[in-house]
Amino acid sequence: MEPDTAPIIVINPNSTEAVTAAIDAAVETLRLAGGPQIVCQTLHEGPPGIESQHDADSVIEPLCRTIAAQDNLASAFVIACFSDPGLYSAREATAKPVLGIAECGILTALTLGHRFGVISILAKSVPRHLRYAGAMGVGSRLAADLPIGLGVAELGDARLTMARMSDVGRQLRDAHGADVLVMGCAGMARYRDELEAALHIPVVEPTQAAVAMALGRVRLGWGAALR
Predict the structure, then answer these.
(1) Exposure class string for 95-106: b at 16+ Cβ within 10 A, else e
(2) Is the pTM of this model over 0.85?
(3) Domains and CATH numbers, the chain
């Protein structure tokens, strides 16, 4: 079967264009000759950052509406927020593959190490992530989920963000036994290479993980015959 040449659409569910730009840069290495193209979009109806359950719930309707409106234009969709907001509703809005970066990031981490740690933005994000890991059935492989104490808008401060992420990453590695880390926010994308070099363990940037999976789905045509 010939692979679908329509683009993979990556949607940032918050309204911060700087986050979308960081996502776009992070997936550049996955833009391959022969496609499909990878198009990054901002959900302008979303909050500046998705930092609470309420924030995550608030974007479900506009996110699903955006996906449904582009159903005939895309080969797959990626929801680029670590809360995977509206993932299951979005899968009802289109017959195309819809991937969430938290699910894909965690599944990728499980192939790189035995116990994964999550670096979150804020303490109030942690319970949401723990519920999700439990729902996925991977709680026994989660070493810990620790916050850096910065909101989405503050992640642009490169020096402060790297210092906080490095400190939390060392805690996850040394005190909690994590042998692979997952970045718990799409806004952290630009720091993956530097963090991995500093900590000497694999670091998963979840949007890259989700787009890589989407590429595989599209190129191999998995599920295409069912649509």
Answers:
(1) ebbbbbbbbbbb
(2) yes
(3) 8-100+208-226 (3.40.50.12500), 103-205 (3.40.50.12500)
